[in-house]
Amino acid sequence: MPQPFGTLTSYLAEEVWAWAVSGWSAPGQPESQGWAASATSATAMTLSTVFVYRSLFIEGLLVGGCMARISYRTGRRARLGAMLAAVVSALHVLALALGLPSVFLRGRALRGPLDAAGLRRLFAADSVWGLAALLWIVTGLLRAFAGLEKGTGFYLRSTFFWLKLGLVAAVFVLELRPMLTLLRWRRQLARGVSPDTSSARALHTLTHAELALVVVIVFVASLMARGFGLRP
User: Fold this and answer.
1) Rounded distance between C-alpha atoms, residue 175 and residue 182, angstroms
2) Which 8-state DSSP code applies to residue 230?
3) Are 129 and 101 in contact (CB under 8 A)?
């Protein structure tokens, strides 16, 4: 954008200067004409200077505007990134807030009577726990590997990060039997068949083991976030 303005003003300045030079009086011309030519030349030089400074002023405004626009866009991207990180972090905490009570209620339902009402409570708690666990894992991966928090390098150098991953894997392994069993019970009820709930006590034990591991994961994550166990 600045280049056309500079070219235009330079062209106008050259034209004014050429017009002024053509007005110089040759030897033998009257003195009044010589003075007129001198005045015209001075005026032309002034106009040429004005055109040049005007060009520089316009170029400065345009360059400054471009820099301001770039700075605004950079700041906007930074604000959007910070907002996205805040949203993902909030969802991560929300998943924990939903998961802990739901897994506790699932264990409580497994200890109670597994009649029609008891099974409804059990399946409701299990559904919330499944959704919370999925949200917890997805947001955790985004925070660790999508550049939203401290950066992937920070997490990969953290001993507590690997410990946290190991605990999450242990929760997943413990969850396999309750998940598959409750899915089978749901299918049986959908077919109008009463499920065999003799394994409810074992599922209760596994559920409370998962609950204990989730609580440990919270403390491990807190230590990890504060830089404990960070290798150089």
Assistant:
1) 11
2) B
3) no
The label of the residue with tokens 């299918």 reads 187
d(CA 54, CA 66): 18
Burial of 101 (0-12, 13-18, 19+ CB in 10 A): middle
3-state DSSP assignment of residue 158:
strand
Tens of each residue's pLDDT in the chain, 232 residues: 444 444 544 544 555 445 544 544 444 444 445 545 555 555 656 655 655 555 656 666 666 666 656 665 667 777 787 888 889 989 999 999 999 999 999 999 999 999 999 999 999 999 999 999 999 999 999 988 887 778 888 889 999 999 999 999 999 999 999 999 999 999 999 999 999 999 999 999 999 999 999 999 999 999 998 889 888 8
The separation between CA 85 and the C-alpha centre of its own chain, rounded to angstroms, equals 5
| Nearest-angstrom CA–CA distance, 33 and 13 | 23
CB of 90 closer than 8 Å to CB of 48: no
Q: Which two tokens stand for residue 32?
A: 């009044």
Q: Length of the chain, please?
A: 232
Distance (Å, whole) CA 79 – CA 77? 5
Strand partners, 158: 230
Helix (H) or strand (E) holding 190: helix 159-190
- Pick the closest to residue 143 from 42, 47, 221, 228 (CA basis): 221
Q: How far apart are CA 56 and CA 64, in angstroms?
A: 12
Q: What is the DSSP string of 122-135?
A: HHHHHHHHHHHHHH
